[in-house]
Amino acid sequence: PSASTYHGMFAHVHNTGLAYYSHAGAWIPLANLTGATFSGNVTASAGITIADDNNLKFGDGTTYIQGSGANDRLKFIANNTEHMRVHSAGYVTKPNHPMFAVHTVPVGFTTSQVVNWQTEETDRGNNFDMTNNRFVAPVAGFYNFSLFCFTDRTTSTGDVYWDVRRNGATFWRHYVGKDGSGNVHVQIQGGTQIQLAANDYVDVYFTSSIVNSMPSSGVHNRFSGYLIG
Questions:
Q1: Contact yes or no for 131/201 (Cβ under 8 A)
Q2: Cα–Cα nearest to 11, from 33, 27, 31, 34
Q3: Are residues 176 and 184 in contact, defined by beta-carbon separation less than 8 angstroms?
Q4: pLDDT over threshold 80, residue 70
Q5: If pLDDT is split at 50, 70 and 90, which confidence band does 130 have?
Q6: In the chain, what is the straight-line distance between the N-terminal and C-terminal CA atoms, in Å?
Q7: What does each C-alpha distance from 107 to 32, 104, 149, 158, 199 come to in angstroms?
Q8: Long-range CB contact pairs, 219-222, < 8 A, 24+
Q9: 0.85 cut: is pTM over it?
Q10: What is the layout of strands, in order, in the sheet containing 26-29?
Q11: Are strands 26-29 and 18-23 parallel, antiparallel or unpaired?
Q12: Which of 8, 5, 42 is CA-nearest to residue 22?
């Protein structure tokens, strides 16, 4: 019957298996344990308990929070893929969190150039472009970068720079100046944080006025980074 005509009435409907009351021109289903649909917010004056190993699902059911066994207490799933897990001991792991590490064996630099990283150690999320030797940020946020390298000065004059660049502009520079002696091995290492927009890229650029400057023999030069948040 018309909900407007029977405002405030209660109805028990066999073919849906639900109870309804009429209000504001509509029949509104009452909650039960078999699946009434709510159109507004649900407020509980006490805790809501979900049995262990059951899910709290959203939307089409591919995004949900899952309670599980004793060692992995809580999982956060989006599009049926785990994105975060809270362990019973308090550890929080994020299996898709962007990170990378690359290195190169000793290669002589005869010109100023983007450093050619020969080996990709790890690349969670596939965000390091080995063709262009750059990390491309998949999402806006703060990132941490680390650089470790050796410079083999084969002459006593000239300057050497290792520049970590964002979109081609230097934001962090390592400098090796003249020392007057030549044949000096100089270690460069450090880390920095920077804010990136999605699709910003970061690379390492080598600049030198010494034609024969190169990473030291037998030492891997390493560049790595990860999303902080």
A1: no
A2: 27
A3: no
A4: no
A5: very high
A6: 55
A7: 70, 8, 12, 19, 29
A8: 219/106, 219/149, 219/150, 220/103, 220/104, 220/105, 221/103, 221/104, 221/115, 221/148, 221/149, 221/150, 222/101, 222/102, 222/103, 222/146, 222/147, 222/148, 222/149
A9: no
A10: 10-13, 18-23, 26-29
A11: antiparallel
A12: 8
| Strands 160-166 vs 201-208: parallel, antiparallel or unpaired | antiparallel
How far apart CA 22 and CA 1 sit, in angstroms, is 10
Q: Which amino acid is residue 191, in one-letter code?
A: G
pLDDT of residue 108: 62
Q: DSSP assignment of 49-91, as one string?
A: ---TT-EEEETTTTEEEEE--TTS-EEEEETTEEEEEE-TTS-
Q: What tens digit of pLDDT does each residue of 155-200 get?
A: 556 677 788 999 999 998 877 665 555 556 667 788 899 999 999 9
